[in-house]
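Entry for iron/sulfur cluster complex. Fields follow.
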Amino acid sequence: MNNIFSKRMLHPEKPSLEKLIVPVFIPHKGCPHLCVFCNQKRISGTAGSPSPEDVREYLSGAFSSGRPATTIAFYGGTFTAMPGLEQKKYLSVASEFVSKGLASGIRLSTRPDEMDGERARFLKEHSVKTVELGVQSLDDSVLGKSGRGHTVGDAIRAAKVVKDAGLELGIQLMAGLPGDSREKFLHTVSETVRLSPDFVRIYPALVVDGSELADMWRRGEHVPLSLFEAVELCAQAVEMFESAGIRVIRLGLQPGEELEKSLLAGPYHPSFGHLVRSRIALRKMLAALENYEGDSAEIVVNPRELSVYKGIRNANVRELSRATGKKIKISAGDAAPGEFKIQL
Ligand code: SF4
């Protein structure tokens, strides 16, 4: 068999950043109000916020196993909207683990309208390396309908402030928010590329019990994306970000029992990220096969990426066969990570 095609298609597997993070959930701490889609207690599976002393105990346990240098992350609230003294207490506890060399730094998430130069400098002085901004959308009508209480201008200003302070910038986006559309979301993605964050996370909006979105959905005022639509949209977004050199470190919420119990509707899948990566792989393989005739083709991929290329339960193999009329085989071989070869 001749190797007639070799194409770089996926970013090589990177060690999952999530595995290098010790998350500390502070559900709704500092949040000025509830955004319509949000119920952090259900999403994170954490009922209340830990005190700084609880955090010390939790981190002592988390680092006792001698795991490699890890970032401590405060998630689930609006960190910089907490009273300054409270922020200081949490950061002092986390800094103890950074000073001992157990953690490499601190990251936290916050809202764009709760970030300014003074707060960014304060974070920098307290061992914070990364700020994740919950931007969600760069369309003012979507932000309004989602009850965010901030504007696109706030997000643009906050992104600049974080970068100017020398902090790493992460941006969180949501697909399928109230009032959003495919065009608006892709516009959000291209505008986010212009902000040049260091990484992004993309979450499809889910309808979680106890959120205002659940009431809107019950009243027929909100129709969530289907799983297919969400995967398609996120696949396009990932391609746009990665072609601009921006890492996508998370796709879809972390699966969990509490989330699954409270999920009412929306494009949830425990392996959402895998579905998106498989969709991207499918598109690239289809494009590559367009130029080749013959009744069959074998696609050789890196062994570590076989399941992404094949798709869940061989979905990509079936779709490639259907779309091209060829007998398709996808196998593990000597392809480099992120590349594939077509052999006829
Ligand atoms: S989305 Fe963020 S800002 Fe809004 S309520 Fe949830 S944690 Fe707070």
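NOTE: The chain has two domains: 17-270, 291-343.
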